[in-house]
Amino acid sequence: MSSSSVPIIVLAHGSRHPRADGAISLIADATSALSGGDVYAAHLDFSPVTLTNVVQLLAAKGHREAVVVPLLFTKAFHARHDVPEALQEAHEATGVHLHLADGLGSGEDMAQVVARANRTVARGAERLVLYSVGSSMPEANRAVADLTRRVGEILQLPDAVAVHATGKGEGTGPQAALDAAGENGVIVPLFVAPGTLWDAVVEHVSLYGGPRLGGPLVTALAPLVLKRAGGADFRGECFGEETGL
User: Fold this and answer.
1) Residues 6 or more apart in contact with residue 100 via CB below 8 angstroms
2) CATH for 87
3) Which residue range(s) make up the domain with 182?
4) Contact (CB, 8 A) for 162 and 220
5) pLDDT for position 142
6) Which end of the chain, N or C, is surrounded by fewer C-beta atoms within 10 Å?
7) Average pLDDT over residues 82-88
8) Overall average pLDDT of the 209-214 stretch
9) Do 97 and 126 belong to one domain?
């Protein structure tokens, strides 16, 4: 089977936000428009559109394999545990071979995507704040800090800091992001789709004013999703008979 005929599944963490599922579907549609192939949306949590349900649909259509692209920025808990478990469960339920692609990551290509999506809103700002969910794994947070510096370089904003929405201690949460940005900064969310954590920042600024705000990446991610899916054909982990899983 050629890689162009293998369907792609974009696998999101999932969110209680009412617009989150629709945003992930938009990413799938945008990726499909670029590839000319079938692309489906699935979620790890908070949605009835689970990976197993989507793969069951593919099996009913006669597909025997698919590529899964996790919409995750770091190799933290979800990437290391939840995603492989979801693929294993879906394979066992359907027999469909699932090729696990790399996640979105925090490398140079992601920095270019974030910078390009926020170039207009960041123009003239004095400071960049990259606002991410945060992780209990220090290496994941360091990866986001490196990404923040690179995005700042591309946007010619050397004063760039990462702030996390969750975590212990000072320097986390929406108020920390607002304080870090000040009146002349810009806060850019490292979010795939709308989420309640980002809404807290947006609502504060809408009520009281404050720095400029970017927005979730959504369809700006489509070229990167397609790139990751292509890489899975050669080096992605496969859940199925080929690896004895």
Assistant:
1) 68, 70, 83, 84, 87, 232, 236, 237, 238, 239
2) 3.40.50.1400
3) 108-218
4) no
5) 95
6) N
7) 94
8) 97
9) no
